[in-house]
Design brief:
Length: 439
């Protein structure tokens, strides 16, 4: 069955399990009575009722698998529980009626209705249970070993009937109690897990909105500062030229320093823009995998720290992605890998086919992340570094970019063995006779 993703699916998930358990219990009980006690019962009719319960559960399971949450609502759950009450009433009427101790199972259906159904439907189902129990007081097939009669008796058969009835009451009470407690506790646990998942998702969504707001601010700041920095660079270049004509080495050196610092400021602004998510307006472009990786590594000052391993059959894989944003994404992952690795230890960037996907892996030589850190590693603004070493957006933005182009982003880490970030990217469709996986 598909993973439970809503309260509605949690309800039907456990209802299906409980109904299969009920079918199994009914088969065992009917078979045991027939083999051990050899008492006359309408076996064909009882078998038909059990088969009806099993068939309805198969239909319910198929509906869940084919239609998901859209096909499961309160009306479906109500109809299923009402059918179960009617089937229970029919089975009791055919096997002792009011004297059958398993009439206690009406309580299970009352609890199910109270937990799973809206109030009006729950009250209606409860009334149906009471009506069903009242019905088997009037219309039922007496069973000689369960029938108590309407008078006191002292015969051996009557005494045996009382003993069997009391034993059945004990078994029925135990089974009813176990089913109720198990069902309610598991259902409560699943709902708590769902609520936790929803709360985490809402928190991540709030952080994502904050990241996008910061992106707008960073883009505005970068745009506003670009013009003055350009003016400073042009002025510094003019000063440098004038100084060269006059032979003033000190002024030449100062002008060059100014221009170098301006370029550093531009690079910092570019990185801030990316760290805040500002490559969102870039149009995707066509390129090969090798071109995308080479253009990503060219501006990186620590390129000598990376061991590049590209499988021969993937270097010409066609990609369609925003090259500048992808380059910043890859460099951000490499900077993280370098920071996590020992001094001067190389980090590895490799690429190969993974089924129908182009797989790029960035692997560091660090100590790995503990599970609590790994779970939050790609959350926006989550970082274990100091406040001056980044905003904790690198992994979050990398995941966002890869998902935006239709890929998958994975982080695998083992303490003592380092961390590997895996990017699964869909190849671009091609019209030539090269490799064109279907995805």
């Amino acid at each position: 069955m598909a993973p439970v993703t809503s309260a509605s699916n949690i309800n039907v998930h456990w209802l299906i399990k409980l109904r299969w358990l009920a079918v199994l219990g009914q088969l065992v009980a009917v078979t045991a009575v027939r083999l051990l006690l050899d008492e006359p019962l309408p076996w064909a009719a009882l078998g038909a009722l059990i088969a009806t319960a099993a068939a309805s559960n198969i239909v319910l399971t198929a509906r869940v698998r084919s239609r998901g949450e859209a096909g499961i609502h309160a009306g479906v759950l109500t109809a299923v529980i009402v059918l179960d009450v009617l089937l229970l009433t029919g089975m009791l009427a055919l096997s002792g009626g009011r004297d059958n101790p398993f009439a206690l199972f009406y309580i299970v259906h009352v609890v199910l209705a109270a937990v799973l159904l809206p109030p009006r439907a729950a009250w209606a189902t409860t009334a149906l249970c009471v009506l069903g129990y009242a019905t088997i007081f009037v219309w039922y097939t007496p069973h000689p070993l369960l029938h108590m009669g309407d008078h006191q008796g002292h015969g051996a058969a009557h005494t045996h009937g009382w003993h069997l009835h009391l034993q059945g009451m004990l078994i029925a009470l135990a089974l009813t109690s176990v089913l109720i407690v198990y069902f309610v506790t598991r259902l409560t646990s699943d709902r708590e897990g769902l609520e936790l998942s929803l709360r985490v998702a809402r928190e991540r969504e709030g952080l994502a909105r904050h990241a996008h707001a910061l992106a707008s601010f960073a883009a505005s700041a970068a745009h506003e500062m670009a013009s003055p920095l350009t003016a400073i660079a042009i002025t510094a270049r003019e000063i440098e030229r004038s100084a060269e004509q006059g032979g003033d080495d000190d002024v030449i050196e100062d002008a060059r320093t100014v221009r170098e610092q301006v370029e550093a400021c531009r690079e910092i602004l570019s990185r801030i823009s990316y760290d805040a998510g500002m490559q969102l307006g870039e149009e995707p472009d066509s390129c090969t995998l090798q071109e995308a990786i080479e253009s990503s590594l060219t501006p990186w000052k620590d390129r000598h720290r990376a061991d590049l391993l590209l499988a021969s059959d993937v270097v010409d894989a066609p990609l369609h992605l925003p090259k500048r944003a992808f380059g910043e994404c890859l460099r951000s992952l490499l900077r993280n890998a370098v920071a996590a690795s020992p001094q001067d230890a190389p980090v590895q960037i490799s690429a190969h086919w993974a089924d129908a996907w182009v797989c790029i892996e960035v692997r560091d030589r660090g100590h790995g992340m503990p599970p609590d850190i790994l779970r939050r590693a790609d959350e926006p603004f989550f970082t274990t570094r100091g406040p001056a070493q980044g905003m904790g957006l690198g992994l979050y933005l990398a995941r966002t970019l890869i998902q935006d182009i239709g890929g998958h982003f994975e982080i695998h880490s083992e303490q003592g063995a380092g961390t590997t970030v895996r990017l699964l990217i869909p190849p671009a469709p091609t019209d030539n006779h090269g490799r064109n996986p279907t995805y």
